[in-house]
Amino acid sequence: MADDAERAPLLQGQSKAKEFQPSSPSRIWRQAAGLLATTFAIPLSLEIVFPFVSQMILENGIACTSEQVGFYSGVVESVFSVMSLIAIIPCTYLADSIGRKPIIVVGNIGLAISVICFGFSKTFVGMILSRCIAGTLGATWSVSKIMMAEISDKSNESALFTVYQLAYRTGQIVGLPMGGLLTHPARHYALFKAEFWIAYPFALPCIVAAVVALISALLCFITLPETLPAKTKGVTFSELSEDQPIPAMPTSKTSFRAIFTPSIISLLCSTFAMFLTTEALVAVYPLFAFTPIQSGGLGLDEATIGIHMGFRAVLAIGILPTFSILQRRLGAHRVYQLVMMTPPLVFIGFPLLNMLARHGMGNSWVFYLALFTMFIVWSSNGFAWIANAMMINDAAPDAQTLSAINAASQIATILPQAIAPISITSLFAISIESNVAGGNMVWVAMFALNCVVAIHSYTLRKPSTSWRQQD
To answer: What stretches pass through the bilayer (predicted)?
Structure first.
């Protein structure tokens, strides 16, 4: 009898088994608006400084010559990701303690303040401190992924995470040109010919990024429900009626060993490898394209490289909507496994493009067809991002452990951002200098690594149960 009483539902009308009922589309998308705005604002704040950070370091007198800028700009650019990596666990812990919504809203407000501080910084210490704060608060992105999982169900999960990925990619794409076009506004726009903008030439892009973050905070405050699970499994605060008391916060009794099973650890390792490849490609292509043809590159100028990267980004966004079709037919796991077979093909494309350029075909239709094909195959990696996010959410044993697993996946996501660029560019330089495998050692190594990663993806298994339908 005691056992039966303990197992009885704590809330009236709550059935023992949570039956699957598709949520109202309008309600779900209204709730997701703030999360999508946050997902757009965080990469925007990260990327917007890249076009002008080197010039900012020079003009502020932090570096005396352009040759010295590299070290300082590298520190400024990487500290955001490093601090996000450090702050993931505290952010998810707070989200489990005081709720998801406060963390998202406060994080966006703090992000806006830190970006403005960066734009007005005149010292290296000021730049570093503002980026440290921005990176710390940018870790709230991990909480937004948790909330997206909690407001979605199997009827809309694929569409939500596709748009989620689109929002992140769009933030990246918009941030780069915005940072360049809005710098030194007094020189380019009559509206800003004032002493203030002359004194603070890098403030305008940061102010715009801050406004985006504040709008995101407002949307989250207005539209987001609190999704931290209540005492009864599967019930969120948004699903409680107004006259019901707010139940006590849940305490998951699942042990660390029970959460991080071999299957989940294997999935996290695959996540790390997938993002390591993604970040390596983004870092190495501009360097490869800039390197002289005789040294193994394409010998392109900065403007052409920018066009290439912009075109590839547009392709990546353009094909993302087709993910939902593939996911419905094949399932997230199968899509992930198929897409993980594409990076080896991309790395084959680098020496192929160089070979065409060496034979005087750098402006031929054959070259551009090969480049377009490589970009299409490369862009399909965006499917892996979405499928991986769905697999991470499905891997949680229950709703209370969703935060812990998402925090671990965020570490596996952000850590490659810190180590991939320096690793791949150094390996590229060593390949050219040593001339091992005709200067192609970097491509041979990355091809072999990604073949192993692709094979490993076929060992991943779909969970037999879903935390969304537990008692």
So the answer is: 33-58, 70-95, 102-121, 197-224, 259-285, 305-323, 335-353, 365-386, 407-430, 442-460
